[in-house]
UniProtKB/TrEMBL annotation:
UniProt xrefs under Pfam families: Plavaka
Natural source organism: Gymnopus androsaceus JB14
Protein name: Uncharacterized protein
Length: 586
């Protein structure tokens, strides 16, 4: 293991040795066929010479199942409608509190955990505030004040999205801080004796009932807390626009965050937020003023509320979704690379055209906003700049007759971005892109490993095996890291720091923590080395001062780290640009 002492075999229990464990990891991660692996172990002497503790795939799986589940055991619950008790809708889920505990106990995430909010500013006078992570946003600040002294917030981000299991695309790496909580019911229901509205309403009720059952433990935990004085609170719900309307009981074509009418979506005037009390009030008033289901539905729709469901739901959640489905292109689906390439050439194609200058300015503003919204760090100067330019110039499209209005939910949602970033940090914390990738790991890969008949039990078992292997590997890495730290020599005064280039602080760059630098660059006791180096730079510093400085705390805990720079014209093709970077760096 790179020159370090090997771990004792007891560290790999229930596996007999490191080789025993590595073979299990290879079989599970690479998807080795069960029959093929059984034939390998049937060869006389193979299992004995390798020192394996299992004789077939069944024994291998038994070892994996004996490991501590990452997020608890999978459970099954049947949901029924009162007027159709004969039909079961199966919900497969895990306890949300167990999932939260597993994340907090994951050693690979320890250096990323934040226990208290902070306000970050660009200047000493604290005039320009920075918004990057959720812990430096206003929501955490406000929520923290509601908790008892010594307690900490565990903000949860929930995401749901429909997916077709038979489709497959993408190649990004999923971040380990995401856990699949549930497979929501997808069973078909008979359309007999149901109108179109009733049929749609049944599915919406089914979704809300399933989500209430999965997330209901958060109500008591958020009010009373759990172990370690931790309060798991739902901070953000990530979904595309149709599901935003489903979750908030909003009429399609309206805003799921505020009470603005559909005919006023183009207005910049602020509207009251949608709340649970307001939505339920509309439903109750409609129910009391009508006698038939159709009348009740029409009364709710007149207030732009879907009256299908009458259950509590989570309110005032930050949604994010920045794609214009069929709005500016006939393409029904484009990749991220295609979208970026379109954005690079769109403005250039308009230069020299007969479009008014204000219209081109509006296009530039909306493109600016798309790029600005992707910033990992924001301050008061970046927020609102592009939106103001867009709103001041988009009336040019109305003047030349391209559009009659901008009462479009996607464009209206832009007015909520500034407040959303101020409350919850940069959008890369909760955008839809990061969760769409998880469909591949959590659903599509799992489905492909099944025999396509009674697939969900097979999918949950496959996912549990993947998670157990990952958790066990992380535990071994943590043990090895502790072993390295225990044998590493203490820093000396003359120690120099290498393999990193530190440049003056860039306020828009996100630095790396000392623990992250120490781990990724294999520099034991990095903070002590840095303290010694900085002490040496002080005028009149002596060797005694340098030696004593190792115990002094630093006024910062992060550094901006740069490996190299490249200045060249930006390529219009992301793939070619990546190839150029690889040639330059390697």
């Amino acid at each position: 293991m790179d020159g370090t002492a090997p771990l004792p075999n007891r560290s790999f229990a229930p596996f007999a040795s490191e080789m025993d464990w590595r073979i299990v990891e290879w079989v599970v991660k690479d998807g080795i066929g069960h029959k093929s692996f059984d034939r390998l172990l049937d060869i006389p002497g193979v299992a004995g010479k390798l020192g394996l503790s299992y004789k077939n795939v069944a024994g291998l799986h038994k070892h994996i199942d004996s490991l501590q589940p990452r997020a608890g055991e999978w459970k099954i619950r049947s949901l029924q409608f009162k007027d159709h008790p004969e039909q079961d809708f199966v919900l497969r889920y895990r306890e949300v509190i167990e999932a939260v505990k597993s994340l907090w106990g994951d050693p690979s995430l320890a250096e990323h955990l934040v226990y208290k909010p902070r306000k970050v500013f660009l200047d000493s006078k604290k005039l320009s505030r920075v918004y990057s992570e959720m812990w430096d946003g206003k929501w955490w600040q406000y929520t923290q004040k509601q908790l008892p002294k010594g307690a900490t917030v565990a903000p949860l981000i929930i995401a749901t999205d429909k997916t077709q299991l038979t489709q497959f695309s993408g190649s990004k790496q999923a971040y380990p801080a995401c856990i699949l909580l549930a497979y929501l019911p997808v069973d078909k229901m008979p359309k007999d004796s149901l109108t179109r509205h009733e049929y749609s309403g049944c599915y919406q009720c089914l979704f809300h009932n399933a989500m209430c059952h999965v997330l209901s433990p958060l109500i008591l935990a958020g009010r009373k807390g759990v172990e370690m004085a931790m309060y798991p609170i739902l901070a953000s719900y990530v979904a595309n626009y149709p599901e935003q309307c489903l979750i908030t009981c909003s009429k399609s074509g309206t805003c799921p965050k505020c009470q603005v009418k559909a005919v006023n979506l183009g207005s910049q005037k602020p509207s009251p937020k949608q709340t649970q009390a307001w939505t339920l009030g509309v439903m109750q008033e409609s129910q009391q003023s009508t006698s038939f289901t159709a009348q009740y539905f029409d009364a709710c729709m007149a207030e732009e509320v879907l009256g299908y469901v009458y259950v509590p739901f989570w309110n005032e959640l930050p949604f994010t979704d920045i794609h214009f489905s069929n709005g500016i292109s006939s393409l029904s689906q484009i990749s991220g690379t295609e979208r970026k390439n379109m954005g690079k050439i769109l403005l250039g194609c308009l230069i020299g055209s007969t479009m008014p200058k204000k219209a081109i300015t509006a296009v530039r503003a909306i493109l600016d906003f798309i790029y600005l919204a992707q910033y990992p760090t924001h301050n008061d100067n970046t927020l609102g700049y592009a939106l103001n330019t867009w709103h001041n110039n988009n009336n040019s499209f109305l003047e030349i007759g391209i559009r009659d209005d901008f009462n479009i939910p996607k464009f209206h949602s832009l007015v909520h971005y500034v407040e959303m970033i101020q409350f919850f940090g940069a959008t890369d914390n909760y955008n839809t892109e990061m969760f769409e990738r998880l469909h591949i790991d959590f659903a599509k890969k799992a489905w492909r490993t099944s025999n396509k008949r009674d697939e969900f039990p097979q999918m949950t078992r496959w996912l549990s095996h993947q998670e157990n292997i990952q958790s066990f590997n992380q535990e071994l890495s943590w043990i090895l890291e502790q072993q390295q730290l225990s044998v590493s020599p203490k820093p000396k005064a003359a120690t120099t720091i290498s393999s990193c280039i530190f440049l003056p602080k860039n306020p828009t760059a996100i630095g790396k923590s000392f623990a992250s630098i120490q781990k990724s660059h294999n520099i034991p006791h990095f903070q002590e080395h840095l303290t010694c180096y900085l002490e040496m730079l002080k005028p009149g510093s002596t060797n005694a001062d340098v030696e004593d400085s190792t115990t002094k705390p630093l006024p910062f805990d992060r550094l901006d780290l740069y490996y190299s720079f490249k200045f060249s014209p930006e390529s219009l093709d992301d793939e070619k640009e990546t190839e150029m970077q690889q040639k330059l760096f390697h």
